[in-house]
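A.,

Following up on our hallway conversation. C-alpha cells first:
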C-alpha cells in the first residue's frame, strides 16, 4: 500500500493521522511542489493529493480514502456503527471540508481578514462543542477529530487565536496533539509549525 501525500496539505495530513491511528503499514511518498509522479497521473484522473494505492485499487479524495481505510482496517473503529450517529459524523466531516478547509485554503493563498474572522468564529463553535466531551462528537477519537486536527494545528500560522472564549478548545487541542498517532502523522514541514496548544 502506497500513500502519495503532500507534506503541507490539510487533506493529506488527515489521511496520515488515520494511517497512524490504525497503525497501517503504508509506504508514504511525500510529493512536493506539484511534482506528481507518473504513477498518480496514470491512476488518478484528477492528479490530486492524497492518492492511496492498494494493490490494483487507486483511491483519491481524502474523505473517500479515510472512509476506505476505516472500513478496510476496522480496528480501532473511527466511525460509529449506529446509522443516525454515523450520519451526524458524516455531516460534521462535510462541514469541516466545505467550511474550514475552504477557509484555510483561501488563507494559504492570501492574508484575508474576512477568512480569519470566519475561521476564528468557527473555532469558538468547536470550543462550545467540546466543552462536555473528550473529543468533537463524543468521548471516542474519530474521523471527525482526524479531519479537524490539521486545521487546529495551523491556527497560529494563519494568525488566528480564538482567545478566552475558546478555553475548551485549547484542552481539546492538547488531547488531540498529545496522541501518538497525531505526532506520527506529521510531516517534517508540519513539525516545524508552532501550534497554539501542544
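Then the amino acids I'd put at each of the 198 positions:
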Amino acid at each position: 500500500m502506497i500513500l502519495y501525500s503532500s507534506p503541507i496539505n490539510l487533506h493529506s495530513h488527515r489521511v496520515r493521522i488515520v494511517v497512524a491511528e490504525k497503525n497501517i503499514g503504508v509506504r508514504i511518498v511525500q510529493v512536493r511542489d506539484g511534482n506528481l509522479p507518473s504513477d498518480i497521473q496514470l491512476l488518478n484522473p484528477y492528479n490530486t493529493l492524497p492518492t492511496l494505492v492498494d494493490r490494483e485499487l487507486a483511491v483519491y479524495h481524502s474523505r473517500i480514502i479515510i472512509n476506505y481505510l476505516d472500513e478496510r482496517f476496522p480496528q480501532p473503529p473511527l466511525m460509529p456503527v449506529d446509522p443516525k450517529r454515523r450520519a451526524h459524523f458524516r455531516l460534521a466531516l462535510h462541514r469541516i471540508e466545505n467550511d474550514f478547509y475552504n477557509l484555510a485554503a483561501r488563507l494559504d493563498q492570501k492574508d484575508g481578514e474576512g477568512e480569519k474572522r470566519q475561521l476564528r468564529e468557527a473555532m469558538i463553535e468547536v470550543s462550545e462543542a467540546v466543552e462536555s466531551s473528550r473529543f468533537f462528537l463524543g468521548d471516542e477519537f474519530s474521523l471527525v477529530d482526524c479531519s479537524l486536527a490539521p486545521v487546529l494545528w495551523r491556527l497560529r500560522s494563519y494568525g488566528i487565536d480564538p482567545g478566552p472564549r475558546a478555553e475548551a478548545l485549547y484542552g481539546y487541542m492538547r488531547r488531540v496533539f498529545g496522541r501518538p498517532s497525531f505526532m506520527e502523522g506529521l510531516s517534517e514541514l508540519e513539525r516545524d509549525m508552532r501550534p497554539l496548544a501542544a
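The mean pLDDT is 93. Curious whether your intuition agrees with the design.

B.
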